[in-house]
Amino acid sequence: MRYLVTGGAGYVGSHLVAEIRDRGGEVVVVDNFVTGHRDAVLPGVRLVEGDVGDAATLQAALAFGPFEAVFHFAARSLVGESMRDPMLYFRENVGKGAILIDSCVRGGVRKFVFSSTAALFGVPGEGPIGETAPIAPVSVYGESKAMIERMLAWAGRVHGLRVACLRYFNAAGADAAGRLGEDHRPETHLIPLAIDAALGRRPPLEVFGTDFPTPDGTCIRDYIHVADLADAHLRVLTRLDAGSVAYNLGTGRGHSVLEVLRAVEAVGGRAVPHCLAGRRAGDPANLVASSARIAAETGWAPRRAALEAIVASAWAWRVAHPDGFAA
Q1: pLDDT tens, position by position, 58-90
Q2: Which of 88, 203, 269, 287 sits most deeply, having the most CB atoms within 10 A of its CB?
Q3: Considering only CA atoms, which of 17, 20, 74 is closest in space to residue 40?
Q4: Strands 170-172 and 223-225
Q5: Which of 141, 168, 223, 247 is catalytic?
């Protein structure tokens, strides 16, 4: 099988590429390296360097087909940045997404798997979030992903494109073989920030909000191992034979910020220096996914759901790669 992966030099995209290669598949990666890393493109993977908003780049990449499916990861993904510069996110995510979808339809692609987000759901109610929860983003980033989902739905209705929108919650962890890990610039995710604080590579971590209606007062989030996400992306391909789908991806169990800090301390044997701060605007108290639908329809289940196992893989990557891919 041959697949096209946009943003295949990024965090989740590169782990999917590794999973495809480990299963004997072929991959063509399109990446402009604005946020991705050249060293995250594994040996033997064909690289087309360029932007998904450039029709000529996409034409060159699609010429290496036919492809079993296109996986679309390339996007801006910082909530705070999206609120400071909304039009950047509409240009980069929505505008370039439209060019990619159009190129895929014209190029005869039949299956399209989209890296979506739990940010679609804004501030949901209590309990695990299922696919029928209202889509009501409270950030421009979430809105940009919702707009792409709607474009893909129309591409399905008009052109017959089979689409899987995978809305995952908090991707975490690293490749078990040590080839890949999390290296965002700037880093905004809790687990790598906590690890770097424990290793003395950054100032004490700020814990935003200690008065939420949760057992310890801090936010609860659903952390899912990046390798489990990669597995889900491949499992949905067979399901697309029966029609388009949307799935929420998580473990179904949430962990508070303080629980994450304790897990980092247990794995690393070091304290995580931190200080308490006020809430950030728009932070929901509890975001946990219900993945019952994808489990029932594909048999997928997270195999690395234990928080300490997720943290341990992230810790191993950070210790072995103190400067990330820059080393």
Answers
A1: 999 999 999 999 999 999 999 889 999 999 999
A2: 287
A3: 17
A4: parallel
A5: 141
For residue 114, the cross-strand partners are: 72, 165
Supply 103's token pair. 């190129």
Residue 168 designated active-site: no
CA pair distance 116, 307, nearest whole angstrom: 23
Q: What is the pLDDT of residues 79-128, one digit of tens each?
A: 889 999 999 999 999 999 999 999 999 999 999 999 999 999 988 877 89
Q: Is 23 exposed, middle or buried (0-12, 13-18, 19+ CB in 10 A)?
A: exposed
